[in-house]
Amino acid sequence: MNKSKSALSVTSENQFDDELSLLDLVAFMQRNFYALLGGALLGAVLGVVIAFVLPAQWEASALVRVGQLGNVGNVGNVGSPIEPPLQLVDRIKNKSFQNDVLTRLGLKNGDDDVKAKLFRDTLKVKLEKSELISLTLKGTSSNEVKQQMNAVIIELKSIHAKMSAPSISRWQQELASTELELKRASEETERLAKSLNESNSLNERVFSQAALVSNLLIARESELRSLRERKRMLEEQLSPERTFATSELGRVEVSEKPVFPKKPLFGLAGLFLGLLSALLWCAMKSMIVRKSVTI
Which DSSP string corresponds to 19-44? Predict the structure, then answer.
């Protein structure tokens, strides 16, 4: 019986403490209402002011298709990328590549340069599921960031053009050589066919010569078929559907309005920080008052 009475009294005391704590909190909020409100409003105003002071930034975005070198005869594989997409992503992130772009733009590439730092910090690259390369970049004006994004794409095109040039040049030389051989073989085939026709109209004494010419004609026709097939494969390999340069899809898009700083977010963050600061200040003030009263 005594145990149940003591448990009941403990429960009542806990409920009383909870109610007292809630009442203290409400009383604290009422006493410091204007201080808390002033801190929140001051923080919001400071946040908006900071948003106006910070330099505005626009964002440019682009999609890049990696160039390809054609394959022939591989079912389901019409070509190989000039550079593996994952390797290209790492290249764009590399400081050396970024410095080359800055040099192309005529800008300084030092670590302490403001524009160079903004360029490096905001240049983002992402490999999409379609293996397209997504690029985003921020700058202090819409024209500036568009110019910088175009410079990034031009630098990529230049690198890939140098990488693919030897293969494309070799295929073009092979195609020219094959066309020349095909022309010579066609002329030789026509000459042999004409000679064979003339032999058929003569007497049997030239029969052995006609047989030799016939064998040569068969060999030349086989060579012609082989050369035509080789020419077809080279032309298909060099066709725009199989071999093409790195290029952007569509155009470089630039945001119509600045993407940073966002004034509502800065105002909201300032309001929260101001309220928190005022709350801490009021709490410390109350603790100091209590200690002085106790002493």
Answer: HHHHHHHHHHHHHTHHHHHHHHHHHH
Walking along the chain (295 residues) 10 residues at a time, the average pLDDT comes out as: 48 48 76 83 83 84 95 71 95 96 93 92 94 94 95 97 95 93 83 66 54 66 86 91 93 90 82 86 79 66
Task: Give Rg (Cα) of the chain.
Answer: 40
Which residues partner with 138 through β-bridges? Answer: 59
Cβ neighbours, 10 Å, residue 214: 16
- Long-range (24+ apart) CB contacts under 8 A made by 70-74 are 70/236, 70/237, 70/238, 70/239, 70/241, 70/242, 70/243, 71/237, 71/242, 72/233, 72/236, 72/237, 72/242, 73/233
Angle at 165 between CA 160 and CA 168, to 5 degrees: 120
Q: Which residues contact 214 (CB under 8 A, 6 or more apart)?
A: 196
Please give the C-alpha separations between residue 284 and each of 17, 269, 279, in angstroms, as whole numbers: 22, 23, 9
From 230, 132, 218, select the one nearest 182 (Cα to Cα): 230
CB 188 within 8 A of CB 237: no
Residue with tokens 């970024």: 98
pTM: 0.73
User: Are the CB atoms for 142 and 58 separated by under 8 Å?
Assistant: yes
